[in-house]
Design goal:
heterotrimer; B: Rossmann fold; 2 domains; 11 helices; globular; C: about 425 residues; alpha/beta; Rossmann fold; 7 helices
Amino acid sequence: MFITALPTIAQMIGANRVLRGHAITSPTGDPSLAAGDEADLRRRIVERALEMLSTDVGPSTAWEVSR
Amino acid sequence: MIVVHYLNQFFAGLGGEEAAGQAPARISGAVGPGRGLEAAGLPIDVTLTCGDDFFGEHEPEALARLLSWLGEIEPDVLVCGPSFGSGRYGYACGSFAREAGRRGIPVVGAMTPDNPGVLAAEGAAYIVPTGPSVASMKTALPAIARLAHRLGSGEPVGSPAEDGYLPRGLRKNVRLSEVGADRAIAALLAKLSGNVRTEVESAFDRVTAPPAIGDLGSCTLALVTEAGCVPQGNPDHLPTRHSNIWLRYPLSGVGSLSPARYESVHAGFDTRTANLDPNRLVPLDAVRTLEREGRIGRLHAFFYTTAGVDTPMAVAAKFGQEIASELIPAGVQAVILTGT
Amino acid sequence: MRRASGDEPLELARFDVAEVVEGSAASWSDASLTLCLRDLAEAAKEGLPALADLDVRVVRPGDSVRIAHVLDAIIPDVKASAPEVTFPGVLGRLALAGRGRTNRLAGIGVLSVCDWAAAGLASPQTFPDAFVDMAGPGRPMTAWGDRPELVVTCTPKPGVPVADVDRSIRVAALRVARDAAQATIDRPPSAIDALDLAERVDADLPSVAVILQVASEGPLLDTFLYGGPVGGIVPTVLDHREVLDGALTSGAYDWAAVRNVTAYYQESALIRSLVAEHGETLRFAGMILALGYLDTPFDKQRSALLSARLARKLGADGVICTTFSSGNSHTDTMLTVQACEALGIGTVAILAETNGGLTDHVPEADSIVSTGNHDELVDPWTPGQVIGTSDNAMAGEPVPLWTYLGACAQTGDMALTAVPA
């Protein structure tokens, strides 16, 4: 599945499992957070990605990290 | 004629990638390429600008601001770009064009034919096709000025082929010399001899979503990225743009992508944040933690990388097929692909 | 041992009409047709109590006339040696169509007209209007603005069930068509078209069949095969000569631009061209009649499979799939394309577009003939006269193309298409 800060484009060109990343310059991180908090965020992003991989989806489906 | 010109932060002279987070701004007169448009006969009354990252991450707010300025100015035509091969800039141009079009303002854009901005415009803009880089500026500007002048003065525009713009996905009825039945017979005979043609293009390049992974705990996951993540020093010379290659690097014994050992050479975004911690592009440390906890079976021994800058869709599709044809025999069942 | 007798060939004798003159008796000579309109109207109406009134008038190309509420367009035909079997089952006695000599008036049409809503038989929303313009920007949109037309305007008797009224209108209009053509009997034709297929042709030529989609959803939305509605049929092989010779007639009155009028069966451009190309660039394998608008996914898929199966039985290498009207019939077309392609039979589909593009589209439908976007607007026109309605028939307003009879026919009889803009 695809982690990107621009899920609309990804959906438009046909990516099926898309997860909104944090930012263009750091899709799987957030430099404004303290190290421990950033690690937690990255873990949550990857867990959500794994959740998406183990879920059946229709075409061009985009999720957010927080429900 | 009142003309508004939209530019991103770079072409508006506000800075490079580090200024990509700039909020929308309004500048009187022509700026940067706008002066080239003026030299080509299209005077610019107002320039609007927005940072590409700001647009991508705060689209509703950016559009609201830009559209409210359009509402005040009431231009006869809006020119967006040229955005060439830049995906984020093109997307901003296309989205702005679409919304301006909904408010009855004719729009001219300029970008590569497979720029996501073309789809984002949803047919609202007359888009001059360009090459991927600024090298196309000299030929693009007169073409843009010409089209914009026609549209702004309410003159009719001819077909895409006649007037040099990309098909807008709109259709127009014409009467041919051959009836449909004869065209159908000719098309069928052509198809049966291997030459398929159609009067309605297919919209398809769609792949069905693979079914869900049943048991993550026994699955093999691979990491792939288009963020241009490579070992420090880019030893294998991954091109920073127009890449025609992808590369594979070993992850055995690597628990995290340290900034001492890895960097990004992607020319399409500001890499400073990522270079302080490359896990912000390829989340290796988090994947390793989850692997230790048994949440996945194992991480594949290699990660795959390219820099997705001005990469034609056909080339990107080829990269995907090539990488997949390595992953599948290696028993990989799932991929986390990261992009910027 | 008795063997079946050979088929009598179909000879379509063409009698050109360049002008129509009103007179006291019917005659045809040298491209000039004289008709007694009063006689035509009386004969048409006879024995049809469901019709309170019927009138026949002539309109000519260039007349400032908009004909509204047009139901059908019919080409005047008569079976020369047995006029009583003309349009068998619906008008004539039941007999096999597609053999023997048929006399056809070429260059003139019969248009049936009835304002259902004004007669209280259908709400104005049920059927969008249907126009033929004899002048103005709408004239080139139909096939009938460039030739004289016999307009048969029918007024239903109040209180009669709509199915009876419809049957009466169809009978009356077909009578006018047949009776007009009767003027040609024993006269020398302008030309004779042979429509039988040579039996021995190059086996290396690709074999092509047509899957002709029709629909039967009840009165006013129906198609008739030898006079009976086709509802419930499984895909069926027809001889192309039957289709040309009045075996199929229309009783469907929804979206005019994509309506399969009777004339499009009688003068099917597809059949004409496939017959002409038989033995030259292809072998014409035959025609399959199949329903569109089937109700359930199962019925749709089953019909598609049965059509494909027949195409294979006919030995087709490729098929041309036509479409009937708009909406979910396009799904029937797409399923038929898929079913044929799955059997290795190449397909081309003929479809009209809307402002939203194609109604349905599957990846296997990679070769489509577009008959135009029927949502496009035609420029406003104010005719000097409107026939068929007492309302102003959109005079002075832009008219959606869907209103013009047969303009985007998905049988391929018109030359309109849509291109990128």
